[in-house]
Amino acid sequence: MTRLVEVPTQFDDRSFDQFAAAYAQATDGERLLFDAHAAEWASPYGLVGLLAAGEAAARHGERPLLTAPANPDVVSYWARAGFFREAGDLFEVHGKVPRTRPAVESDVLLPVTPVRAAEDVHAVVSTIQQRASAILSSELGLDPKATMGFAMALSESCQNIVEHAGTGGWVAVQAYNWRRKLARRVVVIAVADAGVGFRHSLEPTQAKRFGERWGDAAALEAALIQGTSRFRDPGRGQGLAGIRRYLARWEGKVAIRSGTARIAIVPRWDDDVPLKDGLPAFPGSQVLLIIPEQESGGGGGSSQQ
Amino acid sequence: MIPHIMVQAVLRQSVSGFYTDLVTRPTGRAVRENIERDLAPGTIAVMDFTGVGCLDYSCADEIVAKLVRDKVKVLLLRGLTEAHREAIEPVLAGAGLAVLCERPDGALEGLGASEPAPALLDELVERRLAARNPGGSIRFTAA
Questions:
Q1: ipTM above 0.95, yes or no
Q2: CA-based diameter of chain A, in Å?
Q3: Over 50: is that where the pLDDT of A222 sits?
Q4: Residues A62 and A93: beta-carbon distance below 8 Å
Q5: Considering chain A, what percentage of its residues have pLDDT values greater than 70?
Q6: What is the mean pLDDT of residues A211-218?
Q7: Closest CA to A231 of A134, A144, A160
Q8: CATH (domain of A245)
Q9: Which of A23, A72, A200, A270 could disulfide-link to A196, CB 3.0 to 4.6 Å?
Q10: Which helix (H) or strand (E) holds A283?
């Protein structure tokens, strides 16, 4: 039996729960058909999240199917963003997919890139420093020194996969005009895996401390707010704390979804809720970092939303 | 003789591939273990970050904080960029640790937790490895 999982037409962190709800209805052994034929736009978060879903689905059943977006512009963008290069290994892809190489000069600062080991993080950090520097300083109005902090935040986000997920994952970085929310340009980092998630990772060391409150939301709170780690080493837990400091300085946002919960550090320009629990279950962890153009900075470039 | 550690050179020896960035725990661990091999416990060492690109919090903890916690008595850092300092400072401060850092003008200052830093400066002065400038600042004189 094949179960249909519809990919939202506007697929980003806000529509992700709708996607997760459809995914969560699948039972072991069912083959999943991810239907993106009507997709009109996907953020980096949507793209890496879809790959995580594909990997998880393949673990529990037959290789999943994916219907590519029917709109040639959309499917072309997904190809330039590096999505199909990764999707080909996970899904049986149906539909017309252009043989475009991932973009090397565009708002795609880092195409969808697999992260499995420390070497991958090195490659990601090296690439982003070469490509993001100009965008961060000239278009987002960030101090040129902020590029290094951006690379640090990216490195720590990716390391969560290597250190905690128990499986590989993906990262993508993109710049675009965020008309609806901010009327400013933003850079978005999205990292997703279909691994064990924060609750499972932290359970051996933190569950007792939280008692009956223990769950996905408590695990996210412990990791992001309290800086706890599954390792007893006193220096652990630095990564997410560092990301928070960096984003606080540049008025950025961080949101992490894991299992049935989602936590966010919400800047003043956003109206997201800090903590959501009882969401549809989704495997692994999905991290979103948004750095907005600074208010005195420049702007311009392509629109995506 | 005070050991001088060129971090970028150690990075090249420690990991395969040509990297200038000190990122990830495994990289930090490999670099630290390489450094530790040539360091006697309780020593005073100079660590030069010239040529190092990005330094993330994991590497700052794995290399700098762990050396200070477990191996060296005084660690003097050189060639730091502002971004390096931003990674190292909170990691050390959070652990109640400090190192000394040589500013471009040669003056030494504490980096990390404020409490242990004066004792580190005193240690160098007492051992005649550093001297007070007329203005009151302290400079490293051993190299």
A1: no
A2: 55
A3: yes
A4: no
A5: 92
A6: 95
A7: A160
A8: 3.30.565.10
A9: A200
A10: strand A282-292
Q: Which residues contact A116 (CB under 8 A, 6 or more apart)?
A: A161, A162, A168, A169
Q: Is residue A258 included in any domain, yes or no?
A: yes
Backbone phi, then psi, for A83, in 5-degree steps?
Answer: -65, -50
Inter-CA distances, B33 with A24, A115, A163, Å? 45, 25, 19
Best CA proximity match to A83, nearest among A36, A131, A134: A36
Closest CA in chain B for residue A235: B61
pLDDT for residue A46 is more than 70: yes
Per the domain annotation, does A215 fall within a domain?
A: yes
Q: Is residue A299 part of a domain?
A: no
Kindly report the nearest CA distance between residue B72 and chain A, in angstroms: 17
How confident is the model over B31-71, as pLDDT tens digits?
A: 999 999 989 999 999 999 999 999 999 999 999 999 999 99
Q: Which domain holds residue A123?
A: 2-96+106-292
Mean pLDDT score across all residues of chain B: 92
- Count the domains in chain A: 1
Q: Which residues of A fall within a CB distance of 8 Å from B90? A: 238, 241-242, 245
Residue A302 has a CB neighbour count (10 Å cut-off) of 10
pTM of the model: 0.89
Which of A121, A145, A234 is the closest to B24 by Cβ?
A121
